């Protein structure tokens, strides 16, 4: 990237951040490769998920050196169920 201040080339980092949360989080994982073959390896997930470190406020605080008051409880989820498709095709 071109630095606006020094006008030189600098190394950049592209990131994504979560803006807000909701009461429930649904994650849908497509376990197929680019040839549409089912990925059969095991996948493990924790019963607790904390998304706070991926929040926009937490990420901007790290890059800008701030320490904002963000309620980390809003970003925590407990696993309440899973659904596993056990077929050979996506249908």
Largest sheet: 2 strands, antiparallel
First-residue to last-residue Cα separation: 44 Å
| Helical content class | under 10%
Number of DSSP strand runs: 2
- The number of helical elements comes to 1
- H and E order: EHE
Strand content: 5-15%
Low-confidence runs (pLDDT<50, min 5 residues)?
Answer: none
C-alpha Rg, in Å?
A: 19 Å
Protein model, in words:
With 91 residues, this protein is low in regular secondary structure. The chain has 1 helix and 2 strands, in the order E-H-E. It has one helix at residues 56-64, and strands at residues 48-50, 76-78. Strands 1-2 form a two-stranded antiparallel ribbon. It starts with 47 loop residues before the first strand and ends in a 13-residue tail after the last strand. The model has no long low-confidence stretch (mean pLDDT 80).
Question: Gist?
Answer:
The chain is low in regular secondary structure. 10% of the residues lie in helices and 7% in strands.
Tag the structure with descriptive keywords.
91 residues; little secondary structure; 2 strands; 10% helix; flat
Blueprint of the fold:
Elements: E1 48-50, H1 56-64, E2 76-78
Antiparallel strand pairs: 1-2
